[in-house]
């Protein structure tokens, strides 16, 4: 890797101050598992990295309240995977983590990093979007709330300013909602997906009150499938409705071709897996 | 600008210091400063497990881990597992089950299997496969690795009760 400098501030506020909104060569690093790949490949050439690993410990860990889960941005994916609070309140997250990369990466990669990296192939963004999660973002002017749904601006792009950092993820209490996530891989189970589909559904039996469905990996960014949701909301699910929802989902997506599949292939995957995700959420476990 | 920094950490139980540049990774640190070549870079992407090192009780990919990040940490490598004349139960099991051909991936497998059995002394086939999804063997000794893990589990149990 090309040489760079590394600062290790001991507070989030100090980390924000070290960032520069106009200098893209100064960037934050959390676990670093994704950034290291980019630096090794030479596509990311920072002059200086601001490590977040020594900031206040309150930004690592999960807590639960009546309004849902609070997940510190520096929580590692393995800590999230092992959290009893997560398993109880949003088990779709626990299930998703089982095949997210491998144990060594999960031991180091962080929740905040998985979001801020803006990589459309990651599993947590669609799941958190479908769960209606929001972020607390800290910048020089203080903090602001941002829905995960509004975080992604494009392929590896977020709406965050270059001197803003994610502090916390809030997953609202899910009540009786049911959830599913399908990671569709064309290689091994823990490979990068060709498509990810998350569905969170509030309903009664096969009657859907409201659905939130999100696709990723086949698309340029994690994308809410609002047309598919509109087909479903207020309806009772049958095979015909599921096919309509799958077809409708295509209108919401900006597909990308890559080594995991062509655009026509991913369009077919989308139609099939939107159906399966809805069926799995309705028939599967809660949340 | 990118001056070396002196870090202090525990390496296989012994306190050590090293001058480290920010862009060096943990594998480079272990190989160049300490002559430890058990963790080695192969895929360079955290997929293959050849660079497995345990930091503060957690397995990490040494090729994706900045060397500076082990400042103040406890670092354990495959070289810590055997004593002068005795291999660890997991190492013995890999030899007895012939769970390698070229051996390049073996230290990583040994480290991950040791972690697995620390967490779960009696893993099922599915649990073994799941835990080792991030370890690749280009000689494809996977069936023998499965045998070795089960043999190691037996040896550790026998050792614990002996």
Task: Provide tags for this entry.
heterodimer; A: 287 residues; alpha+beta; Uridine Diphospho-n-acetylenolpyruvylglucosamine Reductase, domain 3; Enolase-like, domain 1; five-stranded antiparallel beta sheet; B: alpha+beta; Ubiquitin-like (UB roll); DNA polymerase, domain 1; 2 domains; five-stranded mixed beta sheet; 15% strand
Give an overview of the whole structure.
The complex is a heterodimer of chains A (287) and B (162). Chain A is of the alpha+beta class. Chain A has two domains: 61-172, Uridine Diphospho-n-acetylenolpyruvylglucosamine Reductase, domain 3; 178-283, 2-Layer Sandwich (Enolase-like, domain 1), CATH 3.30.390.50. Helix content of chain A is 33%, strand content 26%. Chain A contains eleven helices and 14 strands. Chain A has a five-stranded antiparallel sheet with strand order 4-5-10-6-7. In chain A, α9 (226-232) packs antiparallel against α10 (239-249) and α10 packs across α11. The longest helix of chain A is centred in the last third of the chain and has 21 residues, at 263-283. The radius of gyration of chain A is 19 Å and the shape is globular. The mean pLDDT of chain A is 96. With 162 residues, chain B is an alpha+beta fold. Chain B folds into two domains: 5-80, Ubiquitin-like (UB roll) (Roll), CATH 3.10.20; 89-161, [2Fe-2S]-binding domain (DNA polymerase, domain 1, Orthogonal Bundle), CATH 1.10.150.120. Chain B contains five helices and five strands; from the N terminus they run ββαβββαααα. Chain B has a five-stranded mixed sheet with strand order 2-1-5-3-4, with helices on both faces. In chain B, α2 crosses α5. Chain B is globular and about 50 Å long. Chains A and B meet through α2 and α6 of A and β4 of B.
Give a brief description:
The complex is a heterodimer of chains A (287) and B (162). Chain A is an alpha+beta fold and 287 residues long. In chain A, 33% of the residues lie in helices and 26% in strands.
């Amino acid at each position: 890797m090309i040489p760079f400098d590394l600062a290790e501030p001991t507070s989030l506020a100090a980390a924000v101050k070290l960032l520069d909104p106009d200098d893209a060569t100064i960037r934050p690093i959390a676990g670093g598992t994704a950034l290291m790949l980019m630096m090794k490949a030479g596509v990311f050439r920072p002059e200086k990295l601001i490590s977040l690993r020594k900031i206040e410990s309150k930004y690592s860990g999960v807590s639960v309240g009546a309004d849902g889960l609070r997940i510190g941005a520096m929580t590692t994916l393995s800590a999230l995977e092992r959290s009893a609070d997560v398993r109880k309140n949003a088990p779709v997250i626990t299930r998703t983590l089982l095949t997210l990369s491998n144990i060594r990466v999960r031991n180091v990669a962080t929740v905040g990093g998985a979001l801020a990296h803006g990589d459309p192939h990651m599993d947590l963004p669609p799941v958190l979007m479908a769960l209606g999660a929001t972020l607390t973002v800290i910048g020089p002017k203080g903090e602001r709330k941002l829905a995960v749904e509004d975080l992604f601006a494009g392929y590896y792009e977020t709406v965050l300013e270059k001197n803003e950092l994610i502090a916390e993820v809030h997953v609202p209490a899910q009540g009786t909602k049911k959830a599913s996530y399908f990671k569709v891989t064309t290689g091994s189970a823990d490979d990068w997906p060709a498509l990810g589909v998350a569905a969170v559904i509030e309903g009664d039996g096969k009657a859907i009150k409201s659905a939130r469905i999100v696709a990723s990996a086949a698309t340029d960014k994690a994308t809410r499938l609002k047309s598919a949701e509109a087909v479903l909301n207020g309806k009772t699910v049958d095979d015909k409705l599921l096919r309509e929802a799958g077809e409708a989902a295509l209108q919401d997506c900006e597909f990308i071709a890559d080594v995991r599949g062509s655009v026509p292939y991913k369009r077919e995957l989308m139609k099939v897996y939107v159906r399966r995700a809805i069926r799995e959420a309705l028939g599967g476990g809660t949340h | 600008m990118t001056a070396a920094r002196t870090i202090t950490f525990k390496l296989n139980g012994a306190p050590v210091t090293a001058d480290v540049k920010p862009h060096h990774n943990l594998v480079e640190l272990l190989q160049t400063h300490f002559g430890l070549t058990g963790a080695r870079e192969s895929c360079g992407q955290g997929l293959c497990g050849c660079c497995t090192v345990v930091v503060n009780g957690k397995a990490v990919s040494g090729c994706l881990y900045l060397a500076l990040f082990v400042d103040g940490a406890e670092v354990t490598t495959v070289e810590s597992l055997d004593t002068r004349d005795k291999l660890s139960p997991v190492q013995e099991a890999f030899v007895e089950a012939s769970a390698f051909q070229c051996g390049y991936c073996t230290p990583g497998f040994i480290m991950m299997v040791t972690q697995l059995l620390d967490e779960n002394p009696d893993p099922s086939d599915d649990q073994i496969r799941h835990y080792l999804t991030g370890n690749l063997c280009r000689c494809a000794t996977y069936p023998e690795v499965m045998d070795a893990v089960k043999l190691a589990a037996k040896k550790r149990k026998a050792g614990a009760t002996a």
